[in-house]
User: Which sequence fits this backbone?
């Protein structure tokens, strides 16, 4: 049973808590129960109460799907074991042998790997282009192209793609546009309102927000696509687990509140980095120096909380700085309460050819920061001491290792 | 060490300084790294998670393999195995196969240029004639679901290997306690762990165990690339459930044998499908390759209406899909779990529509027999009254 609220005139912070709330009609628990069950009893042969087998659907996973759909402004989303399972299901749903896809060249490395190593074997091809210029998308579309998949802001240099401009191209060619909106979530960017057909989220990031789960979702207003996602998901069995769904459901209630704080902290840190003598360059859509600031203001409600920067002293110093942080954590992923710091060229983008990395702007000295909810001044103090350690002798580096 | 001991005596938390006897749940997405430019053992839970690692190693040992992998469902496990194939390759499968597996083959693989063909693997000579130079994978269940046909797994392995193909055995109806396909030379042993391995109907999961390191690397690659590995909490529940696998199955098998004999001698039951009965065509073969006949069996009544009524009158046997749990369950595969089998395949495999499948739990055997006896009686009485009424109108 759903709560009778007309969600369209509510603010995001209210929708995040109440928009997709599903009533527990049995015990009226304020939190929806965790249905940790694989199967459901049927009333009679062929007659169930809407649930039969948890690989196909589960009440707790359903509750999460309604909640994400409410944020996306779509029917209930479809949730998956991981963001990559969502992406895999999307492509298996809309592509077949002989088909072609166009993707942003800055798309997450795992999405590239999926094409190169798995879909390629099935005879599905892809072009990776710089979608920040929509003309590049148009240029590679062929009669076999079925979908354009963009990620904006792109990882890790935060290069933006104009969703509306690309959607005009995909509409003209009658093909699909999917946007990986993981860096911003529907709170800060509304891909479907900008003309996209599918919104893709790794819920592992801001939606869960607590680094407690891995998960993914697909949202669309197209009923046929939705049916197709559900069919392929039950067929390849990539449904989200009930407990992960339950945790995600609780985590996302604070999404708008968290994002406000994440963005505030990121702005303070980005400005500090830009003025720091050891820093060569900062990439952050909220800064005046960001080349696509106008586009950010046009299609995003806020700049987000991901920052990339380079140190003047180069690669070795960047690695020494990362090895010297004490508050920030060296860990993959992003979007959680803890500030995470990564070295894309040796971690998230290590699978890429070095030449390709350079052309994407991922220099070996690039550092990516996912700004958490610690006090910005504490994060700044940690970075300050790490930069100082990075710029001193290698003997200090060894001592720092000992301490850690 | 005997199987019962192996089930409970494994290292539940390698390297853990608190030495817990139960495996900790690492409910985390990511892991902190000691160095900026190199990874530690774990970096991201999609790629690897300590709770999952314990389960995967444990499963590999129980199946007499070297590497184990856990997935978000049995179908995710099967889907991963099919990713070993490329466009143009073929799968040859036994004709009695779980409906979801048929759907995977027809819905996802076919449009990507991978053809699945079906043949009766109970007749290995004719099955062999269906192998082509493109056949890369032979996929069978044994005993099959829901007809409980027994397939000669050693023979299937020989056929596969003589033709440069892999043999994947879906071992869900047996579990590693009763049958180890890798010991019979299969390349891949696969489970819907939702069934006997879990045993409590509280986890949806799948597993793959292999011996060959190169195959293991390929499976790991897909698991990581597609992101379909089992969640940490579910790994914990599965680890816990598996500790009683032998206890549960010993009880379930005892009950199943009693029920099979009861049904076989019941005047209103047409035929019982269970390799534990000495008159079953698979009886000898089952004894030669497995250590028991499991706790899933099927029967026919001669009437779809009677079969439906039995399912609906039974009280201890509850109508659910799935099998292998401590709770007994009953279903009509033709209308439920196998409804997604394409009609052409359905016709080929001769699945009787009045087939009733039961999964026997650990309730008291007298109660279970009484429940079925009552349900069969009511079903026959009810439908003959209805038939009578029909005639009067």
Assistant:
């Amino acid at each position: 049973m759903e709560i009778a609220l007309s969600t369209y005139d509510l603010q995001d912070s209210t929708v995040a808590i109440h928009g997709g709330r599903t009533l527990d009609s049995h015990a009226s628990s304020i939190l929806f129960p965790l249905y940790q069950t694989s199967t459901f009893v049927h009333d009679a042969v062929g007659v169930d109460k809407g649930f039969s087998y948890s690989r196909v659907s589960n009440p707790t996973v359903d509750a999460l799907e309604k909640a994400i759909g409410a944020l996306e402004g779509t029917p209930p989303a479809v949730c998956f074991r991981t963001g990559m399972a969502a992406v895999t299901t999307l492509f298996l749903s809309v592509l077949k042998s002989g088909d072609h896809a166009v993707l942003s060249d800055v798309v997450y490395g795992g999405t590239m790997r999926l094409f190169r190593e798995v879909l390629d074997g099935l005879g599905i091809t892809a072009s990776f282009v710089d979608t920040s210029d929509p003309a590049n998308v148009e240029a590679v579309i062929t009669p076999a192209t079925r979908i354009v998949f963009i990620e904006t802001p792109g990882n890790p240099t935060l290069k933006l793609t104009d969703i509306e401009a690309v959607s005009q191209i995909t509409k003209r060619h009658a093909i699909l546009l999917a946007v990986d909106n993981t860096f911003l979530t529907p709170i800060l960017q509304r891909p479907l309102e900008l003309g996209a057909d599918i919104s893709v989220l790794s819920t592992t990031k801001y939606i869960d927000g607590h680094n407690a789960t891995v998960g993914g979702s697909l949202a669309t207003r197209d009923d046929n696509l939705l049916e197709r996602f559900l069919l392929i998901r039950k067929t390849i069995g990539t449904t989200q687990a009930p407990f992960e769904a339950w945790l995600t459901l609780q985590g996302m209630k604070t999404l708008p509140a968290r994002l406000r704080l994440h963005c505030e902290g990121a702005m303070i840190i980005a400005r500090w980095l830009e003025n720091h003598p050891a820093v060569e360059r900062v990439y952050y859509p909220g800064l005046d120096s960001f080349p696509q600031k106008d586009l950010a203001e046009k299609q995003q409600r806020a700049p987000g909380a991901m920052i990339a920067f380079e140190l003047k002293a180069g690669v070795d110093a960047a690695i020494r700085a990362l090895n010297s942080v004490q508050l920030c954590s060296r860990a993959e992923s992003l979007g959680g309460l803890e500030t995470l710091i990564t070295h894309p060229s040796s971690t998230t983008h290590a699978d890429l050819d070095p030449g390709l990395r350079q052309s994407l702007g991922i220099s070996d000295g690039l550092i990516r920061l996912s700004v958490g909810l610690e006090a910005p001044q504490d994060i700044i103090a940690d970075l300050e001491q790490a930069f100082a350690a990075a710029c001193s002798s290698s003997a200090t580096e060894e001592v720092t290792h000992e301490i850690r | 060490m005997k199987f019962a001991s192996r089930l409970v005596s494994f290292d539940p938390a390698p390297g853990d300084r608190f030495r817990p006897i139960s495996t900790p749940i690492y409910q985390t997405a990511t892991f902190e790294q000691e160095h900026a430019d190199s990874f530690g053992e774990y970096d991201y839970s999609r790629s690897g998670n300590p709770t999952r690692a314990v389960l995967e190693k444990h499963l590999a040992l129980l199946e007499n393999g070297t590497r184990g992998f856990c997935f978000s469902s049995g179908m995710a496990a099967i889907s991963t195995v099919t990713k070993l194939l490329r466009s143009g390759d073929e799968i040859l499968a036994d004709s009695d196969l779980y409906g979801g597996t048929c759907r995977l083959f027809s819905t996802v693989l076919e449009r990507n240029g991978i053809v699945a063909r079906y043949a009766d693997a109970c007749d290995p000579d004719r099955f062999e004639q269906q192998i082509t130079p493109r056949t890369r994978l032979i996929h069978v269940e044994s005993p099959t679901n829901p007809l409980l046909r027994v397939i000669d797994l050693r023979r299937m392995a020989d056929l596969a290997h003589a033709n440069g193909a892999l043999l994947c055995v879906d071992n869900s109806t047996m579990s590693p306690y009763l049958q180890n396909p890798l010991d019979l030379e299969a390349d891949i042993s696969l489970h819907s762990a939702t069934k006997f391995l879990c045993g409590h109907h509280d986890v949806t999961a799948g597993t793959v165990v292999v011996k060959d390191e190169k195959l293991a690397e390929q499976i790991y690659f897909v698991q990581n690339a597609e992101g379909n590995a089992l969640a940490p909490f579910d790994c914990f529940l599965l680890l816990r459930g598996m500790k009683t696998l032998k206890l549960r199955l010993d009880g379930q098998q005892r009950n199943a044998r009693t029920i099979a004999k009861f049904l076989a001698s019941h005047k209103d039951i047409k035929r019982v499908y269970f390799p534990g009965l000495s008159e079953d065509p698979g009886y000898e073969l089952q004894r030669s390759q497995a250590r028991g006949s499991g706790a899933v069996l099927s029967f026919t009544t001669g009437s779809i209406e009677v079969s439906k009524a039995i399912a609906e009158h039974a009280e201890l046997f509850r109508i659910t899909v799935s099998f292998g749990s401590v709770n007994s369950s009953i279903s009509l595969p033709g209308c439920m779990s196998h409804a997604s089998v394409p009609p052409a395949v359905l016709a080929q495999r001769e699945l009787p529509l009045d087939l009733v499948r039961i999964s026997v739990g650990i309730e008291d055997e007298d109660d279970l027999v009484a429940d079925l006896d009552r349900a069969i009686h009511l079903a026959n009485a009810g439908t003959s009254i209805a038939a009578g009424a029909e005639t009067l109108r």
